[in-house]
Specification:
This protein is α+β, with helices and mostly antiparallel strands. It folds into four domains: 2-87, no CATH class; 95-124 and 338-469, no CATH class; 153-189 and 234-331, no CATH class; 190-232, no CATH class. It contains 14 helices and 25 strands. The chain has helices at 29-34, 94-102, 107-112, 128-137, 142-145, 167-185, 208-216, 236-254, 262-274, 301-315, 337-352, 394-407, 411-416, 443-449, and strands spanning 2-6, 10-15, 26-27, 44-46, 49-51, 54-60, 63-68, 71-78, 82-87, 89-91, 123-126, 149-151, 158-161, 190-199, 205-206, 223-232, 327-330, 333-336, 360-366, 369-375, 382-386, 427-432, 451-452, 459-464, 468-469. The chain has a six-stranded mixed beta sheet with strand order 19-20-21-22-24-23, with helices on both faces. Strand 4 and strand 5 form a beta hairpin. It is globular, with a radius of gyration of 27 Å. The two termini are 33 Å apart. The relative contact order is 0.13. This is McrBC 5-methylcytosine restriction system component.
């Protein structure tokens, strides 16, 4: 039923007349015939080209290769028949190839020579939930995090176990961190309608039909059923957020094993921080009213929190008991790990340099080019490219280096940094290296910790250690 892969790993899938047996990589004649490379969903469109979460390459009539890219998720390979699932595991040995290539003083020779032999594969599972917690805790603008995951609600859902479900914990953390920002600011207050039976008074307008049923026919002459407006926090948006929070708390309590190490402690603190703010918020909810809500620029987190909340409720079919099930269904989804890595690098820089945050620019855009991070602090000018994609082909590595070096020559970038005509701007490539030593991300420390890329002037590389899940179950 399922083909399990890790990021950027390939596997050969072959035709088996005998049908699906013990070997899950052998497909029956019916299923094999239905595998179509043209039916792979497009994850996103970037710079005029389609980005796919995985690739299919036909080798011959009996075999094709299936290659995962840098996206974590689960999807149908053949609808209703065969599933592909990509786990958040990274080959820790690829960093050695990147280092060897960038240490070569002659890139042209490097391009002409055969690729390095791949070292023995050694996988570690990335703690993507801890990375997301760090990112969301930084309080970034919601536009930075709203497209981290692609979910297809229009396709039939895929049966998985709670332990295999990568989507729900991701959405829960997104929601709780957004809710924390909302609670910190203070819940949004607005005018909302209240329907209530009032004694010896009238407010707003009398609901004639309801008043007849509840009061006149029951001889309650002193009571009047009215509808009137109130200004306060007990509005439809906050009632919806309270409902999602109940689902989130129930899910966490029923699935504590999914949140390893410090993640559970952090998430518990988040729920304890948010719950008191909703104690005076009602439970009655008509979600159709959400369609009429207008979002304020000051309360911009509401829009994304409600969008993520809807996904959470839809995931559990609006049934609280579903949060305790061990066998569940999930829509096809893909998590953008390269984008997650970019944001992780950016938030680490913000955290280490709170006094210089105005000099740290994320997604600086110019002439159709987008830089991951631009540092404009005088004396620390730097163009940073976060490369989660550790390509082991030498040509691709040098192409990436030349790309970031090209950014440094754009006039808009040079003007932003007030660079002199003959001055070369330093470039830094940050890449995942599970053997790297943790260090301070202070701006003055970056280039001291970085290594030069041998073939280029003022181009540096810096390995970043990502949190991983150890075999004992605790993240590190």
């Amino acid at each position: 039923m399922k083909i399990l892969l890790t990021e950027h790993a390939s596997v050969e899938v072959y035709h088996s007349i005998a049908g699906d047996g013990i070997n899950t990589l052998a497909l029956s004649e019916e299923i094999f015939a239905r595998v179509n490379p043209d039916n792979i969903r497009v994850f996103k469109r970037e710079r005029g080209r389609n980005i796919y979460p995985f690739l299919i390459q036909q080798k011959n009539a009996q075999t094709f290769s299936l290659t995962a890219d840098y996206y974590v998720g689960v999807d149908w390979l053949v609808k209703e028949k065969k599933v592909i699932q990509v786990e958040p595991k990274i080959n820790t040995k690829l960093a050695a190839i990147f280092d060897a290539t960038t240490n070569d003083p002659d890139p042209e020779m490097s391009l002409e020579s055969p690729n390095y032999n791949l070292p023995p594969v050694e996988y570690q599972e990335i703690d993507y939930l801890k990375i997301l917690l760090d990112i969301m805790a930084a309080g970034l603008p919601s536009r930075y995090t709203e497209n981290l995951v692609l979910i297809d609600w229009n396709t039939s859902q895929i049966p998985v176990t709670q332990q295999e479900d990568r989507l729900t914990p991701f959405l829960i953390i997104q929601f709780l961190q957004l809710l924390k920002v909302i609670v910190r600011k203070g819940l949004k207050k607005s005018y909302y309608k209240v329907q209530k039976n009032l004694t010896n008074t009238i407010k707003g307008k009398i609901l004639v039909g309801s008043n007849i049923k509840q009061n006149i026919l029951k001889s309650r002459s002193l009571q009047t059923f009215c509808e009137y407006q109130v200004f306060g926090a007990d509005n439809i948006e906050n009632r919806f957020l309270k409902k999602v929070l109940r689902f989130a708390v129930s899910y966490i309590e029923n699935n504590k094993s999914l949140f390893t190490g410090d993640n559970l402690t952090t998430i518990t603190h988040l729920t304890n921080y948010c719950r008191p703010a909703f104690e005076q918020i009602g439970n009655e909810l008509n979600e159709d009213q959400l369609k009429q809500v207008r979002y304020s620029a000051f309360f911009k987190e509401y829009k994304e929190a409600i969008a993520v909340g809807r996904q959470i409720l839809r995931k559990f079919a609006y049934n609280l008991s579903e949060t305790a099930n061990k066998e569940i269904k999930t829509p096809p989804f893909w998590i953008d790990m390269p984008r997650l890595f970019e944001l992780y690098c950016y938030t680490q820089l913000l955290k280490a340099n709170p006094q210089d945050k105005d000099y740290i620019h994320y997604q600086f855009s110019t002439y159709g080019n987008v830089l991951d991070v631009l540092i404009s602090k005088p004396g620390c000018e730097l163009v940073i490219d976060a490369k989660y994609k550790l390509q082991y082909q030498k040509g691709q590595i040098h192409q990436d280096i030349r790309q970031v070096a090209g950014y440094a020559r754009l006039n808009k970038v040079r003007n932003q940094l007030a660079a002199k005509a003959a001055e070369n701007i330093a470039c830094l490539i940050m890449y995942p290296d599970m053997n790297a030593i943790d260090f301070s991300y202070s701006l003055s420390n970056l280039l001291r910790k970085a290594e030069s890329v041998a073939a280029y002037c003022k181009v540096y590389k810096l390995g970043i250690r990502l949190p991983v899940i150890e075999k004992s179950g605790f993240s590190k």
